[in-house]
Fold this protein.
Amino acid sequence: MPQDPDMEQRPVAIGQAADGFVLDRADGQGRAAATDKRLVKWMRDGDTAAFEELFIRYETRLVAYATRYLGSVDLAKDVCQEVFLKLINKPPRVLICDSIGPWLFRVTRNLAIDKRRRRKFEIHEEDTDLPEARDEGDPLSSLRERNDVEVVRRLVQDLPKDLRDVVELRIDGDVPFKDIAQVLDIPQGTALWRMHRAVEVLRQMWRRHEAQL
Amino acid sequence: MKRSCERLRERALRAGMDSPQADAWRTHCKSCPDCQTEQFLLDTLRRQAQTERQHLGRRELAELLTAARQCHERRRQGAPVRAWAWRAASLCLLATITWYAGRSLSGRPGGAAVAALSFVAEAPGAACGNYGVPLYSSYAEHDGAVLQGTRPGAPAPLPEIVPGQFVQDLLLNLRDDIEQRRQELIKLQDRDAGGWERDDAWECVLPLNLAVA
């Protein structure tokens, strides 16, 4: 009878800790090399270190991706925390392609959109804490760089939604095209084509912007 | 934009901007202004995304780990209860199915209705072409009624014409069937009539040739 390869490679449990957690021999290196699917299995078995590894893998990328929707890093961090809470309480039963990434990004996207929608009806102070430009180099170039970033971001915002989604996932989330296809429910070729198209459109918009200056 | 530009860009996008393919594209960009612009835009976006990849605080991580621990603990405690609940639910389901199967069998010719059917063959009307519709439930029932009536002091019963349970079910099913078909016909009629209400029928404009006729 064929066995699940993930179960075969699971580190051998050597005992039950006082608080009920299974201790195993998976060291930090073993966890770092493990696939997402295996880490989720261990996490379900009560291995909090496996959860921590997953957290380290995705945390920053999820924050950056949520920031695109919310315009605030603090809110994005809240969303990221909510996403991981969801993962703890209800890990996905089916992991496609050994990766939990698409699921995490999809949940992040939904939560961020939901939060943004709710925030429209709330009274709040201006808290768009867009990150400061780096202070390296001379102030003039720093200012120019910051200005460029703002302009390019504005141009991205002006892209059609389907193109923008792909750009944000690829650039901000650093999500591979295979996973982008799963997050957006489109074929991988379409995701790649949208990225190309987005880059072309951005180039044309940038040229127009330069011509106006 | 040349085809070679697109090919180089595609490879770079697929492999990521830190890959050798991206280096090849960068080399090409030195001699291609379009690609140079595109690369500048992508690099700008990437740099900004890097600044937004921030970590959650230690407190948040600690909260998540505690939640993970508690969740596992809950699952571990709830597991035996869930197992018993499943068993009880399966038993209930099995009992329901058995009861339902027994009930539906008793309404079939194999059950109590067999007597009624066997009576049909011997019924007085059968010889005269009265097939399949027993007018008497059974000999025993009829006899019982006659016996009851012959007791001293009891009123003389009228001859009973009570169809058996099976026939009654058949008739009910038949009625249901007819009713369903009638409803379907009404629906079809409504649809074909083009949604005219009865009161509106007088106000409809007749086609010209029909009006002349």
Q: What stands out?
A: The CA atoms of residues 169 and 175 of chain A lie 6 Å apart. The first strand of chain A starts at residue 13 and ends at 16. The radius of gyration of chain A is 21 Å.
